[in-house]
Every structure is written in structure tokens, then in C-alpha cells.
Amino acid sequence: MFIQQIINGLTLGSVYSLIALGYTMVYGILEFINFAHGEIYMIGAYLGIIFLTFFTAVGLTTSNIYLSLFLTMILTIAFCCAYGYLIERVGYRPLRYAPRLSPLISAIGISIFLQNFVMFTQGATDKVIRVEALDGFVSVWGINLSYLQVAILTVSFVVMIGLNLFVNKTKIGTAMRATAQDKIMASLVGIDINMIISLVFVVGAGLASVAGVMVAGYYGLVNYHIGYIAGLKAFTAAVLGGIGSIQGAMIGGLILGIVETLGSAYVSSDYKDVYAFLILIVVLLIKPTGLLGQRIEDKI
Q1: What residue ranges do the domains of the chain occupy?
Q2: Which of 87, 107, 161, 293 could form a disulfide with 289 if both were Cys (CB 3.0 to 4.6 A apart)?
Q3: CB contact at 8 A, 220 and 129
């Protein structure tokens, strides 16, 4: 039973980690919180259901479930990356040199706009889908894992490892790290910081869309305000791991998912949203910079 709950927690935590990566990447470069990021996750969940419904209607889901899921994921990522680029280009770039409060207000405004946009276009009622081909289970050492849990854990860890390698082993990743350290010096050595910042938003939106599709398939139900609480918890995960640290966001999300699942199973599910913030308070009291965060001293 305990191991089963750990697996459930890792499944939930991997979703939080994917969303948290978008928060921590944006903060690492621009040093502000993109509160509209949770809505990208919500849009990804809606698009996942829309595309899966379409492929089911044309018979592709029945004949080839893997191709259907692959096309759903690719199309959703493409749409959400476009949303991420548009948000950065319209909502944040004009405010790049404005006071810190201005992009924060813009982020909240974009979040509210996207919620209402989805409510207006998709309706205020819940969207429900069930893919019968994904209802099966596998048993490993007495632990039951649904096909969707296996898929979520596998895809999440592959994506997170791929992102870590991309940031640390490629030229674009080096440019991203240089921009995060010093935007002025990065531009002086020929790095297009506007392109890098847009790329960060695009990558973050892509990660959130992957989480959205997997959650849509896992729970089979979405609504227009799921991005708020998921975004809040993912932001908590990013702070828990150390805001600005990619590895910290991954670890923070997994810890958050495990704590929430164990708390719901062994204490009370009525307070499942409280456990995340309790663990955050404890960690920040002990280590204010987060688990993997580093204190940066100002040089005079």
C-alpha cells in the first residue's frame, strides 16, 4: 500500500515538475513569475481532449491508439508553444524595462483573460473523455500501475532529462545560461537575448502542454480553472526546489506530489491542498533559498 502511494505521488509530482520548469526557467532569466503559465497547462489539457475526441470520432484511436496519442501530443505542443510565444511577445516584451510590478500585473491579466477565453469558447461545464484502450493495468512486484501512470512517468522523466541535457550540453542552452547570468554581457558577445527569452517561454509552454495532455488522459476531466491551483502548486514546487534551478524544480515537484499523496492517503484528503504549503513553509524556514537554490550576494 505504501509503495503504491509512492508511485501515485511520483505520477502527480512529475506533472507538477513539468509545470514548475516553466516557472523556474522564466524566473531564471527575467526574475519575475509568469502567473499565466498555469493557464497554458489548462489549454494543453483542453487541446488534449479536443484532439483525442477528434481522433476517436474518425476511428484512429480505435485502430491505432499510439499514433493517436502521438499526434495529440505533437499538435498540442505546437499550439501551446504558439501561445507561449504570443504571451511573451505581446504581454511581456513591451514591459521588459518597466518597473517589476508591471509585468506581474500583466501576467495576472493574461491569466484571467485566458481563463475567460477558454470558458467562452469551450463552455463553463467540465469536459470529459475516456479512452478505453488506456484503462488496463500492469502488475510489477504486487504494485498495480495503470498504462497511463506508466506513460506519465516515462514521458515526464524522458522530457526532464532531455531538458537538462539541452540546457547544459547545447549551444542554445549555453546562451540561455549566459542570458540568465547577465543579459547585457550576453548581448555584447552576440547572443540575441530577445530570441532566447522567447525560446524560454516556448519551451516552458511546451512542457506545460505535455503535462496538460497527460492529466487530461489520466483524470478524463478538465475545466477552465484547473490551471490556477495546478499553477500555484507548481510555483510552490519551483520555490521548494530553489527558484531558478531546473534540477530544483524537478525535485520539488516530485516531493510535492509524494507529500500530497501520502497526506491524502494516511491523514485526510480534505486537506490535500494544504500539505504542499506546509512542506514549503518547513523547507523555507530551514533553507530560505530552497533545496537546491543558492544565495547570491550583491557586490558593491
Answers
A1: 15-234
A2: 293
A3: yes
